[in-house]
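Why predict the complex rather than its parts? Because the way molecules touch one another can change local conformation, and only a joint prediction can capture that. The input here totals 635 residues.
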Amino acid sequence: MTAAITPRPTTSRLRPSDVLRVGASGPRARKMRTALSALGVSIGIAAMVGVLGLSESSKSALLDEISALGTNLLTVEAGAGIGGGDGAFPEEALAAVNRIETVEIASAVYDVDASVLKNEFVPSGQTGGLTVVAANESLLDTLNGEIAEGAWLNEATSTYPSVVLGSVAAERLGITTLTQPTYVYVGEQYVEVVGILEEFPLSADLDRSAIMGQQAAEVFYGTDPVPTTIFVRVEDGAIDTTRDLIPATADAENPEEVSVSRPSDALEAQAAADDALTTLFLGLGAVALLVGGIGIANVMVIAVIERRGEIGLRRALGATRAHIRRQFLTEAVILSALGGVVGVALGIGATYLYSGLQGWRVIIPSTAAAGGFIAALLIGAVAGLYPAMRAAKLAPTEALRA
Amino acid sequence: MSRTAALEMRNVVKEYPGFPPVRALDDVSVRIDHGELVAVVGPSGSGKSTLLNVMGTLDRPTKGVVSIDGNDTATLSDKQVAGVRARRIGFVFQQFFLLDGMSAIDNVANGLIYQGVGVRERRERSAETLKRVGLGHRLSHPPSHMSGGERQRVAVARALVHQPAFVLADEPTGNLDSKSTGAVMDLIAGLHDEGTTIAVITHDTKIAASLPRQVSVFDGRIETDSALQGSLT
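Output of the joint prediction:
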């Protein structure tokens, strides 16, 4: 035997770039099916990215608001007890509260027995839910309030009949600018509007009020100098201890009738409630993603059945079982990756659109965008596993009998 | 007998499990040398298809030896046998098995993909091979826009592109009209003249008779082999 020595055959081999090319050939040839099966995943991913983006954006807007207003504001109200009392503190309550060491600044609001109307021809009952209150000059600083138009009360304007309108009050009275001298009818006389406030997120009552100086109220409307509400700005870190001190300080005789609340608690509760809602929507997004994954698995099972001939051909051309498995797995991941890219883009787009409408700063958590894409890849890999195994198991002779 | 055969089968038995087991190939020995053009002929149910599958290493024999280009496939792993198919064997099927989403050239290039040949070389060699089968003007056409005869020529190009030791053609004209049949058989004859080793499996005795050597199969056995008749007597 002088047989020519033939080299031992080497195994067949599929380049990594060809794995991708071969895997993409199926989705490429069936574009409609590819689009539809990717759509399922993209809806799930878009929902999740959108929900995370929106919740982050809205939460950051809320937190911005809270930190701008400060969490160290306490609202002290009289007359919370069973008897109800007369709804007012003793006259010296404000001074007493101001003497507490940890109080930075405190300011009081007094009820004025008058209504604010657009002019004298409006029947006196139609107040539109607006009230008239009196306040000290320090109120604006205590509440971190902002002036939208005109100016806040000063030494001069707080001793004469003039008012500053809360944002809602100004709107209901039809006053938007103060370029011309503007008057409203309070009690039995016209008083000048010297300023309009921005919204007070921590004290919605004041938004619906016309605010005048305490001295003016006392002189012109006979308002008793007994506060009904005291706003207290407390040193950071001393909130709880101060909170405990206030009732006895403000009303030594009836401390149980004093209620102390922290308005920022409400905003924080709102943020927490948003969290719960976000979790719910995330869950819904996850369900959509799962359904999308099942859709891909379904399409892949059908593809394996339809493409038996191709599988047999590829085996005849030298593909190993592993090559076939890799091809169909890659195909499933390509479908889900397409869905992932489109879904992340849709989710980000939705966040921009909605945040823009709300005037929020847009925050897309990078973990949401990256996580959404990775979730899509994983779901594709899982969905493709079973169909790919089936394709690989197919004997070439059986596959070619198509 | 000094050169290795393109294909050699010795005492090959193929049984399918059952009660009793079905013996599809019964002690088959055949040798195809490089450069031969052989017709394997037999009626349906004769074991022709099983013979094709075992020859093409798509199925392993129950007993006996199958050597491709001197490599005994029994000693090879499944991955190595896949390698043998990728490098040494070219298949042509009755149903063409062309992929519709791809152009003719990419279909032909699939014949090289499992050898790890780079994409540029694949396309160059595929274009050459398509020219060789007379389809140089149809490189980027999808097979779905081609006639049956043209499709089978694309499939022949795919079987040739990796320069296999031999080409196995399973009823290559089974789906073609008589005109295309003539063209494809002429192409096969031309390839034979250029030195390509080809086994044509067919039930058509007329086609078989037109080829230089006939091996007829019946009931899982080789009934006659025109190459042996001369030497035996």
